[in-house]
Amino acid sequence: MHPFTITKASDTTEALEAGGRGGRYIAGGTTLVDLMRETVERPDVLVDITALPLHDVDRTEDGGLRIGALVRMAEAAAHPAIRDSYPVISQALELSASAQLRNMATIGGNMMQRTRCTYFRDVTADCNKREPGTGCAALNGFNRSHAILGTSDQCVATHPSDLAVALAALEASVHLMAPDKGRRTIPITDFLLQPGSTPDREQALQPGELITSVEIPALPRPLKSGYLKVRDRQSYEFALTSAAVALHIRGGTILDAKVAAGGVGTVPWKLPAVEQALIGEHPSARLWHKAAGHAAEGTHPLRHNGFKVELLKRTVEQQLRTVGGTS
Ligand code: SF4
After folding, report:
1. Distance in Å, CA 281 to ligand 1 centroid
2. N or C: which end of the chain has fewer CB within 10 A?
């Protein structure tokens, strides 16, 4: 492991000062420490931020929900306000990682999760994300688990987070604070970056910026939602495909639909064509099938992952049926 120093920030000011000098923030450490052990990540200075006051889940004035960056995944999954209002988030969290990891990992850290591409974690393989300009071993290698949406000729790795798929579906935002204490808020779909020609840059963060919370906007009620994850085994595995669905149905008509997919994109993949096909329609098995057919628009399968195209459509259709029923 590369040698490093670690300092514990006692408050936000101290943390931001250390972050502004190039320190890497660490809380649960469930991704970063793994990557440091494998020498994929080699930070010189870590800044422990666990003492910062970012541990709360609060209702916003307009009826949305703000989840502090240091709320643990397990805490968020069990929180009554999240379970009651946004089951899609609780379910996505409960289907992530292992119970041990969920007890350690934080919501902010989840937004900073790095890809599970095996070549990224193998320091002997060419990887533009780990070392820009070296190439992409996955393009001509074994790419069964890789992305079919949002890829570039530089990188085809999927985004690993289940939570981010649920948040993208609900059009959540990420709150950030800079070393000069400047604050800004970015939609999660802009916060997480597609690889393009700079796959090493995965989040729209400026140097030293700190995630303080994620916010789910107020959404129309009643809202039924849920998350489906399809994977090779039933626990501690990343998604081959997943679908986050939230539907606002009143008087037998779908008034609003929010749908995103995971396991298929280089970022959580919002599905506006599916949403548009649902809004204004009446729930039915035929509608779920027809709308889900739009899920695979724009896909570019690689040599080993063509099966994901059909699997994605079926995953979305299944989850529309689960959330929306058929009558
Ligand atoms: Fe690296 Fe991305 Fe290629 Fe994987 S897909 S080897 S992460 S550049």
Report:
1. 41
2. C
